[in-house]
Hints:
The chain has helices spanning 18-31, 45-59, 118-127, 137-163, 193-236, 239-242, 245-266, 271-283; strands at residues 84-93, 96-104, 168-176, 179-188. The chain is α+β, with helices and mostly antiparallel strands. It has 2 domains: 18-83 and 189-283, no CATH class; 96-176, no CATH class. The protein has a two-stranded antiparallel sheet. A two-stranded antiparallel ribbon has the order 2-3. The radius of gyration is 61 Å and the shape is rod-shaped.
Amino acid sequence: MGKMKTNQDGGGESSTAAAGELKNNQEGAARMGYNQSFGAARMGGYAKGAAKVANIMNFGASKYGHYGAADSGHGGVEGHDHPTKTITSRDTSGGGGSASNSSTTGGGSSSSTQSTDNLSSYQSGLKDLGSSFKPTPAQTAAANAKVAELKKKDAAAKLANASTATSSNSSSTNTNPGSSTTTSNTTVSPNSMSETLLDGNIQNENRAQRFNFDRQEANIAAANDSTAVANIRLDRMPAYIANSDKGQAMAGKAGGRAAATSRRNSGLFSREEVVNMYQTGQGNR
């Protein structure tokens, strides 16, 4: 006679085979695409969170392109990407300018003007000699030389007087630049894209940790329900039936249904998962 199989799926190694129940849970879950490890094989929540954070740090903002260019910040999510702004202003005080202008027109003063009447004065002096004066040839030559000299003197005086009649104009401007001060004010936002993404990943990891923990607890509870219901069914049977293959099969089905109900009521398993786990357990009877 085979051993009684009473795990929640309708199959196990004994009426107290919780280990067999968990084993069947894993086999059934694997067919649903759900994979869970126990003990050292399972990565801790902190380690998984750290692995996700490392992934973000290695790949940078390009991994999250759907957030838009405005979210990448300076340096991307792999660095300090707090948004910043720098406002610069410049103030100037004091300063100004002064200007001066001077102009000169006309010639020099009378004291600096040379006479141009030297020849006329000399000729007037000759008239005073009278008509009876008869100059010698030597005197005539001397007089002619004097006339020539005075003509040159008068011409030079006219030229000198003309050069003093000038016009000048000058101006100057003095500018004082005053004092100027440049001030820059930088504002750093307390928000950061990398910190936001990291916080989101931590929350996701915490949610996954709670979910996996609760599923394992639900599987243990389902094993207990399966064992309890199967034993109740066996205790109600006559001893010869309870120890027969037929009795064990009946108890196994009852236990499997109890486990399925327990999982379904937990809200931690889909209907398809519950059905597949139940069928897997029945197939292992």
